[in-house]
Amino acid sequence: MSILINRRSRVLVQGITGHEGSFHTQQMYAYGTNIVAGVTPGKGGEWVLDGKVPVFDSVKIAAEATGADVSVIFVPARFAPDAIFEAADAGIQLIFCITEGIPIQDMMRVRRYLDQKQVRLVGPNCPGALTPGECKVGIIPGNIALPGNVGVVSRSGTLTYEVLYALKLKGIGVSTCVGIGGDPIQGTDFIDVLSLFEADPYTEAIVLIGEIGGNNEERAAEYISRHVTKPVVGFIAGRSAPPGKRMGHAGAIIEGRAGTAEHKINALEAAGVRIAEHPEQVAELIEPYLGK
Amino acid sequence: MNLHEYQSKQIFARFGIPIPRGKVALNSTEAKHIAEELGGKVVIKAQVLVGGRGKAGGIRLARSPEEAEELATFILGMDIKGLPVRKILVDEAVNIERELYVGITNDRNARCPVMMASAEGGVDIEEIARRSPEKIVKVYIDPLIGLRDYQSRDIAVAIDLPREYWKTFMSIAEGLWRVYTTHDATLVEINPLVITADKRMLALDGKMSVDDNALFRHPDLVEMRDLDVEAPAEVEARKYGLSYIKLDGEIGCMVNGAGLAMATMDIIKLHGGEPANFLDIGGGAGADKVAAALRIILSDSRVKVVLINIFGGITRCDEVARGILGALSEVRPQVPMVVRLVGTNAEEGRKMLADAHMITAETLVEAARKAVAVSKGELGYEHLD
């Protein structure tokens, strides 16, 4: 089973006719995701995926016509904040923003607005989520994960794929994998996802994949020590990263003495989290916790 | 992207923040003329994008235009922390009565901007934060509402500013807030904000950092970028949309995805090697981008081996292989390559590279071990079948 998304999710794609949007809509559809609508302003009335998915001019019209309850955003960074506002105002309560490179001040305004509306945003700059065997929203390759009982939450994209693949090679399945993204201002953080996994009866153990920058991992460690009863295995990227340099992700930077991998690893280990030395080792560490 | 002091202060002035009279000079003759215009006594300030200019001798007081000329010659010949001084700011010298600090930055945890102020200006704010955090006043600003007057007034009270300066301070705080929002800054800072002997408030120094992701809507700021602070390979990488950071090791890395790129560097280190760089080719990179990435990695003469780790998702491994082959025919590298391709079209990619004399690996651990072995001369082409 799963958190956030499942086979009943009715998914709407914002930017469905764009380069990224159309490619990943095909991939999501092929995986079995229930794609009910797409939005591209100015292309309302068209159909995509061989006439299977209708395109609308606005999220509001699309949601009213199709009952969409999840949106995934593939529009370019300069238009993405508007797309998030639009989805929230149209009553969509779960929004995944895949787009990378949104200005941080835009995201601060978006996040503030969404907090007042009780809307959940995942991302931006994230790979989305995957509930193996049921639904994929975003860009995580579906074939690298098996259905199962490990919840995976991560700040990274391809690093997560590496871990999913390592789990699959050991025959270990995943309840849901959620990529929360590598930006400094996120819609959903580790704690939000940890609390969902803790409450999900089908998740037996949790994998947390973090990286340098900010203190999301440290706060997660504090939350784990107080509220998480399920075993957690972690991996933190960036032990070899130099301070003061942004390592690709907007949020991955060691500033002053804060945000180092070492600090995060110490905090998580103190909270009882077992830390893998490399991504492939995550599968070895989690295996003993799983009832067969 | 960071702006120079003179650039920041020029922007501040446009938003009503008082700054000392002054001009930028490129040579000592110009510096002398500016000093004459300003009435003799001036401060010569090196314009380089590093902290600690003062300690390094890059900020000096000149009592006459002749002394200004002399000091300008000296400072323009300096290297500060490896950066050449190409410009100096010649500012009027003022008599300082008090030094304060005020700045705005993004607070990641509070997810909103925070205005910080201190009655102790003129020193590194991080130093104050470490030594006596209670001396820093913080006010969180609602990004949807903006800075309110009462918040600036609260700060003025908290840093013991005499009442006669409240109005000026509030207008400076408001100006700073407008600079921050209209320029998509991640940091705006006046340090020190001074009260002069003749009762004026002046932004004596200024600092601004701008969000790189927002530069698309600030073409004027893009033109202000100082390329001296970046390694030439980093500038080249940005042209291709690659994220590249040069490091000191011998193992060049080409990876898709920032997290995986960091993890690849980490595992190299774990096995006793030293990464030469961080390089993320991004998602869905085509052959051109891959070829550019390889050229950039190989432009570092210390690189003894290149580790290519691609986990295909949006990125297709056959496309990466095409890029590698393209670059190989062009640069003819003398260094061995260790390649690991997994995921989308990995099989096709591997087939394309089969005749290219590369060391292959199935897992990340195996790839790292092999790359480290090559960098230490323990493994070479002779070990290939």
From TrEMBL, chain A:
What reaction does this catalyse?
GTP + succinate + CoA = succinyl-CoA + GDP + phosphate; succinate + ATP + CoA = succinyl-CoA + ADP + phosphate
User: Which intervals hold domain CoA-binding?
Assistant: 4-102
Catalytic site positions? 249 (tele-phosphohistidine intermediate)
Keyword terms of this UniProt record: Ligase, Nucleotide-binding, Tricarboxylic acid cycle
Q: Name one GO biological process term.
A: tricarboxylic acid cycle
Q: Per UniProt, where does substrate bind?
A: 161
Q: Which domain of life is it from?
A: Bacteria
State the family it belongs to.
Belongs to the succinate/malate CoA ligase alpha subunit family.
Query: What's its job?
Result: Succinyl-CoA synthetase functions in the citric acid cycle (TCA), coupling the hydrolysis of succinyl-CoA to the synthesis of either ATP or GTP and thus represents the only step of substrate-level phosphorylation in the TCA. The alpha subunit of the enzyme binds the substrates coenzyme A and phosphate, while succinate binding and nucleotide specificity is provided by the beta subunit.
Q: What is this protein called?
A: Succinate--CoA ligase [ADP-forming] subunit alpha
Q: Lineage from the top down?
A: Bacteria, Bacillati, Chloroflexota, Anaerolineae, Anaerolineales
Q: Which gene encodes it?
A: sucD
From TrEMBL, chain B:
The residues listed in the UniProt record as binding Mg(2+), with positions renumbered to this chain, are 191, 205
Q: Which InterPro entries does the UniProt record give?
A: ATP-grasp, ATP-grasp_succ-CoA_synth-type, ATP_grasp_subdomain_1, Succ-CoA_synthase_bsu_CS, SUCC_ACL_C, Succ_CoA_ligase-like_bsu, Succinyl-CoA_synth-like
Q: Copy out the cofactor comment.
A: Binds 1 Mg(2+) ion per subunit.
Query: Which pathway does this chain act in?
Result: Carbohydrate metabolism; tricarboxylic acid cycle; succinate from succinyl-CoA (ligase route): step 1/1
Per its UniProt record, the required cofactor names are: Mg(2+)
Report the record's Gene Ontology biological process terms. Answer: succinyl-CoA metabolic process; tricarboxylic acid cycle
Domain of life of the source: Bacteria
Q: Where does substrate bind?
A: 256, 313-315
Q: Where is the ATP-grasp domain?
A: 9-233
- EC no. given is 6.2.1.5
GO MF entries = ATP binding; magnesium ion binding; succinate-CoA ligase (ADP-forming) activity; succinate-CoA ligase (GDP-forming) activity
Q: Where does ATP bind?
A: 45, 52-54, 94, 99
One GO cellular component term noted in the UniProt record for this chain? cytosol
Its keywords, alphabetically, are: ATP-binding, Ligase, Magnesium, Metal-binding, Nucleotide-binding, Tricarboxylic acid cycle
Query: What PANTHER family has UniProt attached to this entry?
Result: SUCCINATE--COA LIGASE [GDP-FORMING] SUBUNIT BETA, MITOCHONDRIAL, SUCCINYL-COA SYNTHETASE BETA CHAIN
Q: Which family does it belong to?
A: Belongs to the succinate/malate CoA ligase beta subunit family.
- General function of this protein: Succinyl-CoA synthetase functions in the citric acid cycle (TCA), coupling the hydrolysis of succinyl-CoA to the synthesis of either ATP or GTP and thus represents the only step of substrate-level phosphorylation in the TCA. The beta subunit provides nucleotide specificity of the enzyme and binds the substrate succinate, while the binding sites for coenzyme A and phosphate are found in the alpha subunit.
Q: Per its UniProt record, what NCBIfam families does this chain match?
A: PRK00696.1, sucCoAbeta
Subunit record text: Heterotetramer of two alpha and two beta subunits.
* Identification of the protein by name: Succinate--CoA ligase [ADP-forming] subunit beta
Q: Supply the source organism for this entry.
A: Thermanaerothrix daxensis
